[in-house]
Each structure stands twice: as C-alpha cells, then as structure tokens.
Amino acid sequence: MHFYVCRRTLSTPAPMVNVSDLSIERYHALSDATMTTLLERLEDLLDTIGNDAYEVDYHSGVLTLNLGIHGTYVINKQPPNKQIWLSSPLSGPKRYDYVPESDDWRYARDGIGLGELLDKEIMDMLRTKVSLHLEGVSAQIQE
Description:
Blueprint: H1 24-49, E1 54-59, E2 62-67, E3 72-78, E4 83-88, E5 92-99, E6 104-107, H2 114-126
Antiparallel strand pairs: 1-2, 2-3, 3-4, 4-5, 5-6
C-alpha cells in the first residue's frame, strides 16, 4: 500500500497583518504626500515619453497608471490598515507600510520600497530611466 502526500501551494500568500503606530492623521498626511508626489512625477514621466496610450489618473485616493500594452497599475490608500496598496501588472498585489527609519513605504515581505519597485518595473517596461524619488516623504508634509 502506498500513501501519497499532496501539497498545494497557494498563488497568493496569506496577508501579513501589521499593526501600525501611526495616528490616522499622520497616516493621511504621509499617504497624501506620497500619492501627490507619485502623481506629479508620473505625469512628468509620461509627458517626457509622449505616448498618448499612456495615462495617469488620481481620484478619491486611487491612482491608476495605464501603460497601454504593458498593463495598468492601481495604487490606493487603505486607511483602515494605514497602508498603501499596489496592484502591478508584473509583480501582482502588494501592501506597503510606512517605515519611519527609511521614511518611505515598504513591503514587509521583501523590504523593497514602493518607489524602488515602481522605478524598476516601469524602467523595464518602457526602456527608459525612471526615478520617482518617493523616499523622504515626511519632508514633504507641512506641519
């Protein structure tokens, strides 16, 4: 008699729960500054590239970056978790927490910053240098 063990690997790992020490007011200040900076820098990038198929839009805490045949990024604020969520056409879904030590938003599973990931993925897709500079977000907040 033979017994077989079947192991199933889930395509999406279970979410990590991270308890943030940020006040909700501080979360909104940091996430709003990040989203505004991201929007401005992506608009500048798309203007430089000059491809009408590419578009960036921001409404109600949700930023959408449409890169035509390359796919669409959706980046949004998640106030209940005090996170910024990313849906990437290359790397899939990720949840970013604010990390005071690096003064940016980092993915807990790999420690990579939101800006760092976007720089690499967009550069690989569009074959152009991308540097969104999303670190140092607290310096952009007027207190």
